[in-house]
């Protein structure tokens, strides 16, 4: 296999894992525990029985090389680090955020964000980045990125709860518009 094919396969396996560990485990007969964990052997068997064979070596490679550290392995279990649309309790303790966090989006969402703030939509929490560069990459997945600054320090002082996932993504239930700073015209 060429390097390009290897990379395409890695992306395909990562997307497959995201779909089934974050959103639709039941599609391949998986039952995640309350923390979102599943036995690795169970996952590999379920994927194979549904026509998508993943070797343990491929799985370990995807977990180790994913730049966003989307997945966590603990002993014989695996889970998605965050981003679930299904009910899971990640067990993350409350954390004190830095003064500012960032959120990447695209211009077409700005009017709604100005009116309603950041909402989790189909996820459990709003995802915030610790730096502008990461937020820019997140926003770029949907088009030309716009990076919003979140006054996380003020939110925390006002009683909003934050958690930080294993891969450094900051999570909160929502960000009211008053805590957002929008970029000026370019």
Automatic annotation (TrEMBL):
<dbReference type="GO" id="GO:0016740">
    <property type="term" value="F:transferase activity"/>
</dbReference>
<keyword id="KW-0808">Transferase</keyword>
<comment type="similarity">
    <text>Belongs to the KptA/TPT1 family.</text>
</comment>
<comment type="function">
    <text>Removes the 2'-phosphate from RNA via an intermediate in which the phosphate is ADP-ribosylated by NAD followed by a presumed transesterification to release the RNA and generate ADP-ribose 1''-2''-cyclic phosphate (APPR&gt;P). May function as an ADP-ribosylase.</text>
</comment>
<protein>
    <recommendedName>
        <fullName>Probable RNA 2'-phosphotransferase</fullName>
        <ecNumber>2.7.1.-</ecNumber>
    </recommendedName>
</protein>
<dbReference type="InterPro" id="IPR042080">
    <property type="entry name" value="RNA_2'-PTrans_N"/>
</dbReference>
<dbReference type="InterPro" id="IPR002745">
    <property type="entry name" value="Ptrans_KptA/Tpt1"/>
</dbReference>
<dbReference type="Pfam" id="PF01885">
    <property type="entry name" value="PTS_2-RNA"/>
</dbReference>
<keyword id="KW-0520">NAD</keyword>
<dbReference type="InterPro" id="IPR042081">
    <property type="entry name" value="RNA_2'-PTrans_C"/>
</dbReference>
<dbReference type="InterPro" id="IPR022928">
    <property type="entry name" value="RNA_2'-PTrans_KptA"/>
</dbReference>
């Amino acid at each position: 296999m060429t390097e390009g094919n290897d990379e395409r396969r890695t992306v395909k396996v990562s997307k497959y894992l995201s779909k089934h560990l974050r959103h639709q485990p039941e599609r391949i007969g998986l039952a995640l525990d309350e923390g979102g964990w599943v036995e690795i052997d169970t996952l590999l068997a379920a994927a194979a029985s549904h026509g998508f064979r993943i070797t343990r070596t491929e799985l370990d490679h995807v977990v180790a090389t994913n730049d966003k550290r989307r997945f966590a392995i603990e002993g014989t279990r695996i889970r998605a680090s965050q981003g679930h649309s299904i009910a899971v309790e990640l067990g993350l303790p409350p954390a004190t955020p830095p003064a500012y966090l960032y959120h990447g989006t695209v211009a077409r969402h700005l009017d709604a964000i100005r009116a309603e703030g950041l909402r989790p939509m189909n996820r459990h929490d709003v995802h915030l980045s610790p730096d502008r560069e990461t937020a820019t990459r997140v926003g770029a997945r949907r088009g030309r990125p716009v990076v919003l600054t979140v006054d996380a320090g003020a939110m925390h002082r006002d009683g909003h709860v934050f958690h930080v996932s294993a891969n450094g993504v900051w999570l909160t239930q929502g960000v009211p518009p008053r805590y957002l700073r929008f970029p000026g015209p370019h």
